[in-house]
Write a structure and sequence with these properties.
488 residues; mainly alpha; Amino acid/polyamine transporter I; two-stranded antiparallel sheet; 19 helices; 4 strands
């Protein structure tokens, strides 16, 4: 479909490209970091692996369900379009609003800052301690400038068209996936004869919740319902590390044969990443003691639970390679985060485009440039993500919207049931796997996690609800502007 200037989306994303976009958007820095917090929350190697397995199954289940919606509505905007069509424009807008304000832009900022932090390990002068500018008492650091530079560079690549963005995505995803698989293989080979592995097996299914405070370390044994509660809280990190798989749906207007390609890429991409994540954690358990002390002086005494700066991946690499591990992991995470951000930047602007076409966002964002991409939307996204980098608020904002993200996923999968009832005769090239049982299981599991977060993490749930609800007056304003524009 052409815009008013005659520019059209260019369908260049085939099955490999789409699968690389799914995988590349999922794999960032989380797999190398969040296992430490999960380990403290669930207390044993077996429960740690179980958290990642459940997360993977939930993610794959959702992806298989989304395939039906993608086949029905292969349009730019993806999940925004599904929510709009299944429910109403308001629900779609609230998702798009939250995506732009926090979910996508905040993730872009967080991933860019992660890239900058690991760059500083190689080039210390580009770190957070190097202050370049002070504005009204707020310091702008070299790390923030590096983070913003990566956002602008990747935005510039994607402004030149989907072809460049596709090439960058494929190259970096293949590179980081190959490197991650290589590290896992080496780790598993070494784990066979490593004393940490034998030690971890002796208490494999132990469960406890370890909390660190000024008063020291408190370990609380888990039993019964408290185990379920701990699992729900622990899955925040693993779910965030497995998120962004839905980004391929945003780019449906640029996918070749989207009714077939998107479902295949969703299933393949999420399955491959899930296997990699589980194997990475098996490698951690084989190389490092699970339990440790925050006062430990080396990677073995700190263990997985208290890996320095949460960098479990770096600790495992140190066991494999010794002192060069820090450099090896820094390079790997730089490659990983750079490729991840390319996918996020490429996809996110398509939602703004779809909202603008509906009259619910800035009109200019609904136009394509001469290269067939939403240039204004890409630029606006880059500006907002850069501001979040400088403000430093992206971390808290992302914590706040984890609950909201789950709710939107639940609503989207529920949309399959709604549309089966409301539009039974619409062509469905792909039907949700295991319908109605599998989608229903996903909804129940996600609802249970959401309820768990409401009870045990209220500080991270209610603010997210407020962020979503702030979109209500904004929606009313856009509706008013649209009516005013259409009135003679």
């Amino acid at each position: 479909m052409a815009d008013k200037h005659g520019h059209e989306f260019r369908r260049e994303l085939r099955v490999l490209d789409s699968t690389m976009l799914v995988m590349g958007s999922m794999i960032g820095s989380g797999i190398f970091i969040v296992s430490a917090d999960i380990a403290r929350t669930v207390g044993g190697p077996g429960p740690l692996l179980l958290v990642w397995l459940i997360t993977g199954l939930i993610t794959i289940t959702a992806a298989l369900s989304y395939g039906e919606l993608a086949g029905m509505m292969p349009h730019a905007g993806g999940q925004y379009v599904y929510l709009r069509e299944a429910f109403n424009p308001l629900i779609g807008f609230l998702y798009g609003w939250t995506l732009f304000l926090v979910i996508q832009s905040g993730t872009i900022a967080a991933v860019a800052v992660a890239f900058a932090k690991f760059t500083a390990l190689l080039l210390p002068s580009l770190g957070e301690t190097t202050i370049l500018l002070t504005v009204f008492g707020h310091h702008v650091t070299a790390a923030q400038v590096v983070a913003i530079a990566t956002i602008l560079i990747l935005t510039g690549v994607n402004l030149r068209g989907i072809h460049g963005g596709r090439i960058v995505q494929n190259v970096f995803t293949i590179a980081k996936t190959t490197a991650l698989f290589g590290l896992i293989a080496v780790g598993l080979l070494l784990a066979h004869n490593h004393e940490a592995f034998a030690s971890n097996l002796t208490r494999f299914w132990e469960t406890s919740w370890t909390k660190v405070s000024d008063g020291g370390v408190t370990v609380t044994p888990l039993a019964g319902f408290s185990i379920l509660a701990a699992f729900g809280v622990a899955m925040v990190g693993s779910l965030f590390s497995s998120d962004a798989w839905n980004n391929i749906t945003f780019t449906a207007g640029e996918v070749v044969n989207p009714k077939r390609t998107i479902p295949i890429s969703l299933a393949a991409g999420t399955a491959i990443v899930t296997v990699l994540y589980i194997l990475a954690n098996v490698s951690y358990i084989g190389l490092l003691p699970f339990w440790g002390s925050p006062d430990g002086t080396d990677v073995m005494s700190r263990g997985i639970q208290f890996a320095a700066s949460e960098r479990v991946g770096t600790a495992a690499a140190w066991v494999m390679f010794g002192p060069p591990a820090a450099v090896i992991m820094a390079v790997l995470i730089m490659v990983s985060t750079f490729g991840c951000n390319n996918g996020l930047i490429l996809a996110g602007a398509r939602v703004l485009y779809a909202m603008a076409k509906d009259g619910l966002f800035f009109k200019k964002c609904g136009s394509l440039n001469s290269h067939g991409v939403p240039g204004v939307a890409l630029a606006l996204q880059a500006v907002w993500a850069s501001l979040l980098c400088v403000s430093g608020t992206y971390g808290n904002l992302l914590d706040y919207v984890v609950f909201a993200v789950l709710i939107f996923y639940i609503l989207t999968v529920a949309g399959i049931f709604v549309l089966r009832w409301r539009r039974p005769d619409v062509d469905r090239p792909y039907k949700a796997f295991g319908y109605p049982v599998v989608p229903a299981i996903y909804i129940l599991a996600a609802l249970a996690i959401s309820l768990d977060l409401l009870i045990y993490k209220p500080a991270y749930t209610w603010p997210g609800v407020v962020i979503v609800l702030l979109g209500l007056p904004v929606y009313a304003l856009w509706r008013y502007r649209r009516r005013a524009a259409s009135t003679p």
